[in-house]
Amino acid sequence: MDSTEWLKEILKTRSETLSPEIRRRLDAAHEIVIFGSFAAHLQHAESDLDVFCVGESRTHFKSPLIELMILPEHDVFSEIWLGSELANHISNFGIPLGSHPDWFSLTRVGPLSVTRKEKRISAYVRSLERHWGLLSDQAKLHYGVKIRRELQRLQFLQNGQAVPPTKLLDIAFASRAGGGFDSLQCVSGPLQKKILAFFPLSFMP
Hints:
There is one protein chain. It contains ten helices and five strands, in the order H-H-E-E-E-E-H-H-H-E-H-H-H-H-H. By secondary structure, the protein is an alpha+beta fold. It has two domains: 3-106, Beta Polymerase, domain 2, CATH 3.30.460; 111-203, no CATH class. InterPro entries: NT_sf, Polymerase_NTP_transf_dom. GO terms for molecular function: nucleotidyltransferase activity. Residues 22-59 form the Polymerase nucleotidyl transferase domain.
């Protein structure tokens, strides 16, 4: 069984858990793309199935087994979508379950996706400044990983590249072989200092 047929079987099984209305919207979609860990063959026992569709109405549904996003056709040809982080990830790493979507060839990382990621990282750090003393050691570790991944994603976006699946970011970080964490260079000096004040062991060689 090839990858496409395997993914179709997984989608068929997991879609049986959907409500009748969400299932109807999925069945009515005319483009279906699997992305994330299953598309990269990096899934584990608790991985959900990430599904993007072009269909009749905007939909976002998430459960432990499946996360489904549906956009109408006019949305996927908009400049905002084509320049977004998610659109570029799906077009570069997703696996279509049918014909190759026309919009795949039109995606380009846009400046808005870079700005959004920068603001997201800054917001995380501001929140940590307010709540750091209230966090458990486990929570601190969780946020350290979260910010490290976001910095890696920002570096890809700043270079005009699609962001790889999360597991590949983790593999790249684990294989740095004492070479430091160069993704810190993609944010300003003051923000670098704040991040290192929280997570010196997460980012230093």
